């Protein structure tokens, strides 16, 4: 058991509710920063050394909180932003508790996990619990949009870390943690054609929508389920009126890959679609965002430690591979032992029924806290 007193699931849920009821879309820096202000005050008041890095490119700030100690730290990183726009809390997704489930925008992905990390570090400091290593807590503003401003900070802190813990949601009915993930990336494709009257001057036009359709089929053909490679084209746009040959079109492209070699092949194939021919110009912008998160002996050893701690708290902790990326991808590919999916159980990430199994808050937070106390 952790030496730090974590408290009951009821107590944790009561405080977590305030985090959920503070809406934090990735695109609203002021909203994210207001919740970051609250977290900073709690950590500073408990004695953490605080570094706050100003936001840029219209995203919020990044908070780095450190506990005292010598040697390589244990880094724990969570994000405060969500995919949900303002208004869903007052409309279709109010915070509510129904039986063993607590609902609300972002509660599962990943305000519960980020709150658990904050709470564990704050209570370690408040209660003066000794830890084998210092702890560095990162709270970031932009994970849901690819971590464009926080990635450099995450990588900076990971370089000197003994291990990295990511309290993203626990997965599936069994609440699995994550020991590997696919790499993720994306492109924006824009196509220029030539407009013309769709009846009287059809031959003079060059349809950007037709070019987009051909490119879409080529991108779809890159999917290889046996090899673990998937691609998806959405959303798409193009054209102005039914009687005008469309002079412009475009799309977003998502891809997931199991290895850097696969990423190189997919990126090269999509970039090869770029060019100009017969009055059609295709431009492609983007690439690999999160590199694949490999399963390593060091990462598996970290998992076994966590599994042993979880057993003492009364639950099994299976492991899984996930197709979605997280900030753990950045640290794992650097060779730093990384364990992901250490947040709360639940389901419905990015969906209207997003929820956690709130009774699991205390045992899951206790496991996280004991890892922070004991990792050597």
Keywords:
single chain; 376 residues; alpha+beta; Aminopeptidase; 6-stranded mixed beta sheet; 5-stranded antiparallel beta sheet; hydrolase activity; metal-binding; Peptidase_M20_dimer; metal ion binding
Describe the fold and architecture.
It is a single chain. α1 (about 10-20) crosses α3 and α7 crosses α9 (about 360-375). The chain is built from 9 helices and 17 strands. By secondary structure, the protein is an alpha+beta fold. The strands form 4 sheets. It has a 6-stranded mixed β-sheet with strand order 1-2-6-3-7-15, sandwiched between helices. The protein has 2 domains: about 10-180 and about 295-375, Zn peptidases (Aminopeptidase); about 185-290, Alpha-Beta Plaits. It has helices at about 10-20, 30-45, 105-125, 150-160, 210-220, 260-270, 295-310, 330, 360-375, and strands at about 50-55, 60-65, 75-80, 95-100, 100-105, 135-140, 165, 175-180, 185-190, 230-240, 250-255, 275, 280-290, 320, 340, 345, 355. This is M20 family metallopeptidase. Keywords: Hydrolase, Metal-binding. One of its GO terms (molecular function) is hydrolase activity. Pfam families: M20_dimer, Peptidase_M20.
């Amino acid at each position: 058991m952790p030496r730090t007193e974590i408290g009951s699931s009821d107590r944790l849920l009561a405080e977590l509710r305030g985090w959920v009821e503070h809406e934090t879309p990735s695109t609203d820096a002021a909203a994210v920063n207001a919740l970051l202000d609250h977290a900073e005050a709690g950590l500073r008041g408990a004695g953490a050394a605080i570094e706050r890095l100003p936001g840029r490119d219209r995203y919020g700030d990044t908070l780095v909180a450190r506990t005292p100690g010598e040697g390589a730290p244990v880094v724990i990183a969570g994000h405060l932003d969500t995919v949900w726009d303002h208004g869903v809390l007052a409309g279709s997704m109010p915070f509510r508790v129904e039986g063993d489930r607590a609902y609300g925008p972002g509660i599962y992905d990943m305000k519960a996990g980020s709150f658990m990390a904050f709470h564990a570090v704050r209570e370690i400091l408040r209660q003066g619990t000794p830890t084998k290593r210092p702890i560095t807590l990162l709270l970031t503003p932009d994970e849901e949009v690819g971590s464009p401003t926080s990635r450099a900070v995450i990588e900076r802190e990971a370089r000197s870390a003994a291990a990295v813990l990511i309290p993203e949601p626990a997965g599936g009915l069994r609440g699995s943690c994550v020991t590997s993930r696919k790499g993720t990336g994306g492109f924006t494709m824009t196509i220029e054609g030539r407009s013309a009257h769709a009846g009287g001057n059809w031959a003079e036009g060059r349809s950007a929508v037709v070019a987009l359709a051909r490119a879409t089929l080529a991108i779809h053909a890159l999917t290889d389920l046996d090899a673990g490679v998937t691609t998806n084209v959405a959303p798409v746009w193009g054209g102005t009126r039914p009687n005008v040959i469309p002079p412009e079109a475009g799309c977003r492209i998502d891809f997931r890959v199991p290895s850097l070699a696969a990423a190189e092949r997919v990126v090269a194939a999509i970039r090869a679609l770029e060019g100009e021919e017969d009055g059609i110009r295709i431009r492609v912008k983007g690439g690999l965002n999160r590199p694949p998160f490999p399963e390593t002996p060091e990462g598996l050893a970290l998992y076994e430690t966590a599994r042993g701690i979880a057993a003492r708290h009364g639950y099994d902790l299976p492991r899984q591979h996930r197709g979605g990326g997280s900030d753990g991808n950045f640290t794992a590919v650097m060779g730093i032992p990384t364990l992901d999916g250490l947040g709360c159980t639940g389901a419905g990430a990015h969906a209207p029924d997003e929820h956690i199994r709130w009774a699991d808050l205390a045992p899951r937070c206790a496991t996280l806290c004991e890892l922070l106390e004991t990792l050597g």
